[in-house]
Amino acid sequence: MNHSLTYYPLRKSLIKQLIFIEENMVELLDLYVSSTFVHDRDFNFFKRYIAEVEEFLSGSENSTYPSLSKVFIGSQVALLYKEDNYVEHFTICFPEKSDPARGYISFLSPVGRQLLLHSLNEEIVLLTPGGETRVVIKKIEFKDYR
User: Domain Transcription elongation factor GreA/GreB C-terminal, which positions (predicted)?
Assistant: First the structure.
């Protein structure tokens, strides 16, 4: 018997995300286009996200406690800033749940978009209004941010 939808909030949340994205694709694309500079736009953004989530779900189907190795919507991410060894936590969320003061950033925000789908222990360069910042993704865990 497969209890994945009943007992695994991570799987349940990711499946709900896929349904939400597919049902609201037009509105999400409009938000994506309006919040992304022309030179940063990737019109396969949602297709790539959906494919990565589906791959994760199929690969973790028989796992009791699947762990995240990539940043998905609903992930809490610990970033290590290389320059000063400072660690900061962000939760990647849908736009309506965004609250930067509490560390909740939209997956469509510049930083959220740059973190999405990157891997645990991956070093990336974040492009921010203050310039380039080197960070390492030190921890990724599921956070149900309802």
Answer: 69-141
Distance CA 133, CA 111 (A): 11
pTM: 0.81
117, with CB counted inside 10 A (0-12, 13-18, 19+), is middle
pLDDT digits (tens, 9 = 90+) for 71-94: 999 999 999 999 999 999 999 999
The number of CA neighbours under 13 Å toward the Cβ of 16 is: 14
Determine how many CB atoms are found less than 10 A away from the CB of residue 134: 12
- Helix or strand or coil: residue 79? strand
pLDDT at 5 over 70: no
Q: How far is CA 65 from CA 4, 15, 60, 93, 121, in A?
A: 10, 16, 9, 21, 20
Q: Taking Cα atoms as reference points, which of 117, 9, 1, 11 lies closest to residue 61?
A: 11
User: Are β-strands 104-106 and 86-93 bridged in parallel, bridged antiparallel, or unpaired?
Assistant: parallel
